[in-house]
Every structure is written in structure tokens, then in C-alpha cells.
Amino acid sequence: MELPTLLCLVLSLILISYPSKTSAQFQFLHSKCGNITYTPNSTYQSNLKTVLNSLSSNTHITHGYYNFTAGQNLDKVEAMVLCRGDVPENTCQLCIRNSVATLLVLCPNEKQAFGYTENCIIFFSNNSTFHTVRDRPVWALWNNENVSNITGINNTLTSLMGTLQNQASLGNSELKYAAGKSDLTSTSTNQTLYGLVQCTPDLSRHDCVKCVQNLTFSMFPKYFVTPTFIAAGARVIAPSCNLRYEMYSFYGSVSDVALLPPPVPASNRSATPQVEINQKSHRSHSTIAIVIPIIGSLVLIISIASICILLRRKKHKKSATNLNKEETENFNSLQYSFDAIKVATNDFSNDNYLGEGAFGAVYKGKLRDEQEIAVKRLERNSVHGDVQFKNEILILTKLQHRNLVRLLGFCFEKEEMLLIYEFVINKSLDSFLFDPIQSSSMPWETRYRVINGIARGLLYLHEDSRLRIVHRDLKAGNVLLDTDFNPKIADFGMAKLFNIDQTQAVASRMVGTFGYMAPEYVLHGHVSRKSDVFSFGILILEIVSGQRISSFKIIGEKPENLLTFAWNKWLEGKAWNIVDPTLPSAFSTEILRCIHIGLLCVQHNMADRPTMSSVELMLSSSSLSLQVPSQPAFFTRSHTPSNATSQGNTSNQSSSR
After folding, report:
1. Which residues pair with 79 in a beta bridge?
2. In 139-258, which ranges are E strands?
């Protein structure tokens, strides 16, 4: 049976067998894909289908745990499912069947995947899973509300979780689960703390304790329990064990848990500390949505139809974000050994340290063939470093442009995540532009070449490449300069892929650098190509002024931010006041035109901003007339000069950062 047919069948069975259940109750709160793909129609895929079919069709799951293995050596697949200890058997089976179908859709062609719903955990891998402590990948969700009595809850929490840990580890080969409560000490009000600890029953008593303590020691001191903050509730989930505590009763009847959740503050947040490599999908929710059964069934019908159509299309058309057989071979050829990179960088010595990039340090190195490289060593404890790692690999391996930095390869070995790039000798644009001494190396001809090069690189990303990409973190620090000061856009860890006909998306989390982020993104999470256009406009104004957006200041002028100052001076007809004093007036026409283009790019309304194709045309054709810009985003009206006259649309709306 082909994979698309199998998925459609499983989804259909879920709908037919349980028409009154809501799909929301079993949706993933978190899912995570591995970093290694398998070849379609391979032995590994056949074994995976055998394993997952066994999980979804097993009707004799006792105590909420089941594991299965198929194949051997490199084609071996191990999978396990674990339901929460208080979940009824029929609910557990439904959760598992739904999880199997969903995880295949979220992680196609992956050798490892992990999913977690309110009721069950599913995990499959090409590595050893049974009788082994698998505390990674790990996911955490906590309540950002601080408790008032830190001493009281800390003492009670330590005691309660220690007791539950020991009780769970003493369980048998069928169930290792403990839940309980304890009254808070040293409080004037009657408050109770509730907790839960569970391990997979294949673990020994010692391994169960080890797994729970690994989660506790790696998460609690860093995210949940500090001298000045204790979260009012938290949970940590890994394949081999999980734990949770709350200030309300959350275990017991599934219907009670699902239908009667306590109110959760809007400030709740979620994170994925110390997760392993390559997350393809990440969902986190504070509560489970309640959907009327009929509506839930209709939604599920539509979902089944959409998934089946999508999967059948994938048989005939390659997805833009997945690797086919040829691409997989190319992908694998990019892998470097950790030992080779260690030698190339002289064991990441301080002498080879180049600076700090997003989520890690950057080092210079030289391979055995004398090729110079730059190595980004991602932090092991970075919350989102693993996402950036996969994002850069998947994106940069598909892109080739003179104004984009070239990825040579990567290394994922010995818990190390390394990205290997071409070495760009002149470092980043900000190291020259904002340095009083180094800025002399950037006359206007060079700066104008940098502006044009960045524009061409963005145009390629937005319209001309095989992918449609929004960078989301375009700034001077992410533009590298080669020997001739030609710019190369770098750091694609936060980039977002778009479909060819897609114009906008809503980001699940805020990433980027304040000052460069467009207002619609900051306020509403809306991401589009116009988000990059806004960032490019900020870059133009920085290049012209020689000053950072975050620390703009001109002697003798009122303290204003860069956008406010540029807009006011443009209204006054004194735009030259923004220009770096070291730049000669001989280029005034070209420089003032760049300021005009920059103001067009940073307009508050994203519909008013030009596309990068229009920007590139404006830069290349001096005879092309420019539109009058409207008020920029983050404009502070209190500094508008009283004698200013409008040269364009100056909306009465204003916003400040």
C-alpha cells in the first residue's frame, strides 16, 4: 500500500470510528522532525510503514505503552507510543492513531520524528530507542505568571517532584507513573500544588530517575525556578520521560482535563530549550480548543480531503522544501567531519575567533586544500539554534547568487552543530560603516555599490530564485563584504519560505532585530516581502548617515530616532543634514535620491512600499521619477517642526517604539 493511500485510510478510520470526538483534543502541542531523510520507496520507508501501521492498528495496548521494531542495521526502525497514565484505553488508542497519521504528514521522509499531544507521546527513530534514556528531543511549556511565595512553592515543589520521581521509578514493566498533590508551605492562603511524573516502562528504576533528573536539572534552574522567579505551572516532555506541575488539578478524568481547563494568563509562553536538530514543525498552545463535535467532524473531513490531494500531488510534483533522491545525495555530500573542522580552526582557538553570529560564535579556518572557511558554531543550549541550523542548510544549498554568502557544508556530530561558509575577508558591513576609523574605507562609490548589491540579492530571494524567501533579519551585521567590498547577504537562520503565489504569512514567533522590523510584523506578526523592503530602507538610511538605527545622534540637533529625523529633514527640504559628513557633495544628487528611495521603503503602510524589482529599477535608472513618500513607520510626531509643509501624504496616525 502506497504511503498517501495509507495516510488517507488511517485518517478516514479516525473520522468513521469516532465521529463525535474533536480533533482539537488530539492535536499536537509540539512536533519535531529529525535532520536525516530517507530515500522514497526504500527499504527504510517500507519498514517505517510497517512499524507505524502496527502502532495505529494495535488494539491491545495496555497501560498506555507500546513499542515495535522492523528491519535491521541501517534500515532498522524503532517506534514507541506512551499515553499519560490516567488516560483511558480507548482515548489512548484514538490519540495514537491520530498521532501516527499527523506525524507522517508533518515529517515526510524523515528518519526520526517526535510528537506530543495532551494525551500521548509518539516517537520513531533509526537509532536505539528501547531500554535507553532518550531525554532529547525535549520540549517545555510554562506559565509566565510568577508565584507570590517563592520560598513556599520552591520547598513544596522540590519535595513533591522528588517523591513522584521515586514513586514512578518503582513502577513495573507495564506502567511507571505517579501523580499527586501537596499543600504549599509558608502561605497564608490554602493553596495546593499538583504534580505528575512518568517514564516509559521499558526503563530500569535507575534510568527512570536519571531521565527525570536530566529534565529537572536542565530546565528548572534555567526557565522555571530561579531565585527571583518561579513559574506557576510547567511541563517538560521527552520521549523517555515527562513531568508536570500546576497550581490546579490537571490529572484524572480526560474529560475533566479537556473540557474544564482553568483560565490561563495571556502572558503564557512556550519554549524549546536544548532541543535536538532540525525542527520542521513546532506547535505550542496554552489550552486545548473546544470544538463542537459536528464542526470538528467537518473540519476533519476538509483536512482529510486536503491532505489526500496534497499527498497525491507530491507523487507527481516535487515539493519546494523537501529533498528528492538527487538532492538528498547532494545534501549528504555537504557533511564535514567534526575532526576536520576542529583541525581547520585549531580547535576553535581565540586567534581564529571572528565574532558572534546569530546563536553562536564564528571562527576562521583553513581546510587541508588551503581553502579558507568561516565556521559558525551554534550554541548547544540555544533555544532556537536547531531551527536556524536546518533552515540555513535547506535554504542556502538551493541558492546561488553573487550577493548571497555561499554555504560550503555543515557538521552535526558529537552534539555539535556547525555551519561552514566561504570566508569573506572584510567581515560585515557594520564593522566598517559604524567605525569612525574604518568608515574612511567606504567612500560613496563603495557605499552605493553595497546598496545596489543588497538590492540585487533581495530581488533574487523574492522573485528570481527557485524558492521565494523572506530573510526577516536583514541588517548591517548580516551583510558581509568581500575583497572588493561587494556585499553578500548572510545568516538565513530566520528566513521564511513562501509559495510562488503567496504574498503574506503570520509568524508563529517573533524573530529579527528591533529597529529593522516592519510595523505590521512587530504589531501583528504579519510577514511578507515588504517586511524585507522595510529593513532595506533602514539599511539605506544607515549607509547614507553612517549611523546605526539603534543609536542615531547628530551633534547640534534634537534627540530623535533616525526615521523621525530623516522624515523631518526631508519635509524641510534639508535632507542633506542626514548625510555622513565625510561624504562629498559632488555626489549629492545620487545620495539624495538614495534617501528618497529609503523613505519610500520605510513607509508605514506596507502596500505603499515598492517591491524590490521596483527598487532595483529606481537605483539603476536615474531618469526614473520617484513617487512622494508618505510618513514612515515608528514616526514620533512630537518632534515634527512647526513650520513643516507636507510634500506627500502625512497621515495623522503615528506610532512610537
Report:
1. 68, 124
2. 139-142, 176-183, 192-199, 234-237, 241-246
Secondary structure element (H or E) that encloses residue 11, with its range: helix 3-17
Domains 3-136+280-316 and 334-422 share a fold: no
Domain ranges for the chain, please list them. Answer: 3-136+280-316, 139-271, 334-422, 429-639
How many other CB atoms are found less than 10 A from the CB of residue 79? 25
d(CA 161, CA 213): 10
CA distance from start to end of the chain: 57
Q: Using 50, 70 and 90 to split pLDDT, how confident is the model at 62? A: low
Task: Judge contact between 430 and 549, C-beta under 8 A.
Answer: no
For the segment 268-281, what is each residue's pLDDT rounded down to a tens digit? 333 333 333 233 33
Q: What is the pLDDT of residue 295?
A: 40
pLDDT in tens, 614-648: 999 999 888 889 999 998 976 554 333 333 333 33
Per-residue pLDDT reduced to its tens digit, 509-526: 667 888 899 988 888 888
| Residue 473 among the catalytic residues | yes
Task: Tell me if 475 is assigned to a ligand binding site.
Answer: no
Instruction: Write down the H helix ranges in 270-361.
Output: 293-316, 325-333, 338-344
Class of domain 3-136+280-316 (CATH, top level): alpha beta
The C-alpha atoms of residue 425 and residue 533 are separated, in whole angstroms, by 27
- Which of 207, 473, 491, 532 is catalytic? The answer is 473
Please identify, in words, the CATH class of the domain defined by 429-639.
mainly alpha
Q: Is the pTM of this model over 0.90?
A: no
Give pLDDT, residue 543: 96
Q: Which residue has the higher pLDDT, 261 or 474?
A: 474
| Domain topology for 139-271 | Killer Toxin P4; Chain A (3.30.430)
Mean pLDDT of 305-321: 44
Residue 145, C-alpha cell as written in the block: 505568571
Mean pLDDT estimate for the chain: 78
**Length reported for the chain:** 657
3-state SS, one letter per residue, for 182-223: EECCCCCCCCEEEEEEEECCCCCHHHHHHHHHHHHHHHHHHH
The residues, any chain, with a CB within 8 Å of residue 286's CB and separated by 6 or more, are: 141, 264, 268, 270
Select the CATH number that applies to the domain covering 334-422 from these four: 3.40.50.720, 3.40.50.2300, 3.30.200.20, 1.10.3470.10.
3.30.200.20
Looking up cell 525535549 gives 138
Q: What distance in Å separates the CA atoms of residue 632 and residue 608, rounded to the nearest whole number?
A: 10
Nearest to 632 by CA among 515, 475, 552: 515
What is the per-residue pLDDT for 265? 32
